[in-house]
Task: structure prediction
Amino acid sequence: MPGVSYIIKYFNKKEWKDIENRSSLIIFYVSIITIMMILISTFYYMNDTGSDGIF
Result:
């Protein structure tokens, strides 16, 4: 996923704490939310199919 590599590149930067660019922050949060939604949807999908799922 391109979003994950973008986040990893961002964390590797030393200046990532000093972000003043709002578009970068928005991209950062949107990618995190997208990852969470994918994890939640796969969890529910595994529950619907009747398998044990993650837990």
User: Anything to note?
Assistant: The mean pLDDT is 72. Residues 2-13+20-44 form one domain.
